[in-house]
Design goal:
GO cellular component, one term: cytosol
CATH superfamily of the largest domain: Diaminopimelate Epimerase, Chain A, domain 1
Oligomer: single chain
Order of helices and strands: EEHEEEHEEEEEHEEEHEEEEEE
Strand content: 35-45%
Bound molecules: ligand LBFN2T5F
Protein name: Diaminopimelate epimerase
Radius of gyration: 19 Å
Enzyme class: isomerase
Number of strands: 19
Shape: globular
Catalytic activity: (2S,6S)-2,6-diaminopimelate = meso-2,6-diaminopimelate
Number of domains: 2
Function: Catalyzes the stereoinversion of LL-2,6-diaminopimelate (L,L-DAP) to meso-diaminopimelate (meso-DAP), a precursor of L-lysine and an essential component of the bacterial peptidoglycan.
CATH architecture of the largest domain: Roll
CATH topology of the largest domain: Diaminopimelate Epimerase, Chain A, domain 1
Length: 297
């Protein structure tokens, strides 16, 4: 019996994904298998594994999201744009609906190359929606006991849920902090019962931000779509910027519009298909179309 199945590798601004199609019979992988394939040292290397499934809600597809550590989560902005691009190609329509554990999201063709816009819905801002472990009346800036983890000092993050929990720390220079060292401590801070994605944000003008993100269950990534949305919402809520901003991440720029008419967050950016290949589940080795590579090399 063959244990082989097909995959695609895609990315949104370098935030990269293993894309599997369960509609074509690809089996559900275990968390240890996902983590092995996600390894940049011995596996394919990716930030999230995305599995496309039939949608119970009647959307064009359901998108399942697993972080590189094998843990399943509810939202991923950049992957929603990638799957949007695939489904737009598959259906020939200019807009598609994608079901996620965080709800139904709409993805739109922009008519500009591979760029896709996704409507990420309305941000959730109440303390128990983030969620936080204790009540805060105002989530625009929460007092956090952090301890002496770094200098200069980080304090009073904004918190936003974009289908997943985000904490945003305002800084003058995103490079002045060792986010690889402090990110895991903040991700696991007891105030975040479901852990959190941690961002350092520098406001560069009334319509631009620079952002660096430590992603929950992954680590430092080249870009984080929901992180960019959360930072844009937090910046507008605190009057640091207007509601339309360009967010510059290590992998590129995302255009975010926190639409005033209905409070939905629209995110626009490029997506890229890197390559396709075949995975052998029995050995967790893989071949890339046109070349041979794998964990056994
Ligand atoms: N890369 C993502 C976010 C993926 C999920 C996140 N790590 C979490 O655990 O919530 C994005 O583009 O939004």
């Amino acid at each position: 019996m063959t244990t082989a199945f097909r995959f695609r590798k895609m990315n949104g601004l370098g935030n990269d994904f293993l894309v599997l199609d369960a509609r074509a019979g690809v089996p559900r992988l275990r968390p240890d298998e996902i983590a092995a394939l996600a390894s940049r040292a011995t596996g394919i290397g990716f930030d999230q594994m995305i599995t496309i499934e039939a949608s119970p809600a009647g959307a064009d597809a359901f998108m399942r999201i697993d972080n590189a550590d094998g843990g399943e989560v509810d939202a991923c902005g950049n992957a929603t744009r990638c799957i949007g691009r695939l489904l737009i190609g598959e259906t020939g329509r200019e807009a598609v609906t994608i079901e996620t554990r965080a709800g139904l999201l709409r993805a739109y063709e922009t008519g500009e190359g591979e760029r896709v816009t996704v409507d990420m819905g309305v941000p959730r801002l109440a303390w128990d929606e983030i969620p936080l472990a204790e009540p805060f009346a105002d989530t625009r800036a929460i007092e956090l006991q952090i301890g002496p983890i770094d200098a200069p000092i980080l304090h009073s993050p904004a918190v936003v849920n974009m289908g997943n929990p985000h904490a945003i720390f305002w800084v003058d220079d995103v490079e002045a902090y060792d986010l690889a060292r402090i990110g895991p401590m903040l991700e696991h801070h007891p105030i975040f019962p479901e852990r959190a994605n941690i961002s350092l944000a520098h406001v560069t003008s009334a319509d631009s931000l620079t952002l660096k993100v430590w992603e929950r269950g992954v680590g430092l990534t080249r870009a984080c779509g929901t992180g960019a949305c959360a930072a844009a919402v937090a910046a507008a809520r605190t009057r640091r910027t207007g509601r339309r901003v360009a967010v510059t991440l290590p992998g590129g720029v995302l255009a975010i519009d926190w639409r005033a008419s209905d409070d939905h967050v629209l995110m626009t950016g490029d997506v890229e298909t890197e390559f396709a290949g075949t995975i052998d589940r029995a050995t967790l080795t893989w071949t890339r179309d046109g070349a041979v590579r794998g964990a056994a090399e």
